[in-house]
Amino acid sequence: MAGTGGAHRVAVLVLDGAKPLDVGIPAQVFSRRPSMPYEVRVCGARPGAVRGGDGLAYQVAEGLEALQEADTVFVPGYRDPATTRPAPEVVEALRAAHARGARLAAISTGAFALAATGLLDGLRATTHWHYARALAQRHPAVRVDENVLFVDEGSVLTSAGAASGLDLCLHLVRRDHGVGLSNHTARRLVTAPYRSGGQAQYVPRSVPEPVDDLYAGTREWVLRHLERPLTLEALARHARVSARTFSRRFLEGTGYTPMQWVLRARIDAARELLERSDLGVEQIADRVGLGSGANLRLHFRRVLGTSPTAYRHTFAP
Prior knowledge:
Blueprint: E1 8-14, H1 20-29, E2 38-44, E3 48-51, E4 57-60, E5 72-75, H2 88-100, E6 103-106, H3 110-116, E7 124-125, H4 132-138, E8 143-144, E9 150-152, E10 156-159, H5 162-177, H6 179-189, H7 216-224, H8 232-239, H9 243-254, H10 258-276, H11 281-287, H12 293-304, H13 308-315
Parallel strand pairs: 1-2, 1-5, 5-6, 6-10, 7-8
Antiparallel strand pairs: 3-4, 9-10
Helix pairs in contact: 1-5, 5-6, 8-9, 10-12, 10-13, 11-12
């Protein structure tokens, strides 16, 4: 349903614990102005005060009725998503908006609210890397991808941490009105006009934190000997169990097969050398056990969605 003068109506749904940057990004990107055929309404579960995150609070004039007229509904991220659930009336209002034809877009941990509606079941989705495992565990029917900035599944979209919400908003402007208006909006916001949804989230470590301490000694041994040829059999020998048992229990404890974990450990070591040394790509590949620069580039792009050279340009001092 179009708003004033045919403008696209955007509702920003502020939930308890909402993060200020997550709220502010869509509110500013889609604010009404001559160049922008959008209008924004900021709402909550009900009119009035909403407790915010990071020491802020919000005063919203409208409740969930704003979703009944929205063409796009943004759900900003909020605090403690892994331990709190959106209220039933919020879930129902989101479902009703989607059924009416509105598209739903989550920033960061707002993905938990979308997942609670069931509308992400069977689809790819992302969230902030810190909460990706919690989202996957709470909503196993959602195909969580922790390695991207945003995911567009048509009528439901999700993005990673706060700044990637800006990438998602510009993506929607580009989708609605083309690259010209998207670039104009990016210039107004003084930001990069395009980062693809497939670009990686730059998490501190590619290696996942273990769920338990099983095989912790073997993992530490691997990290000290990444330059060696490391096979499943070698790791199992170190752990003093059969390869089959090691593989099964390692997967249960980390969410990765042993060799997937080793690859990510090697990528992490390469990242550190790219950031802190002047070594060339070939030298780094040899030091972390990836053999050649071509092999490092291949796996680096698969895991992080970028090249070693681009990564160094971004993060080296």
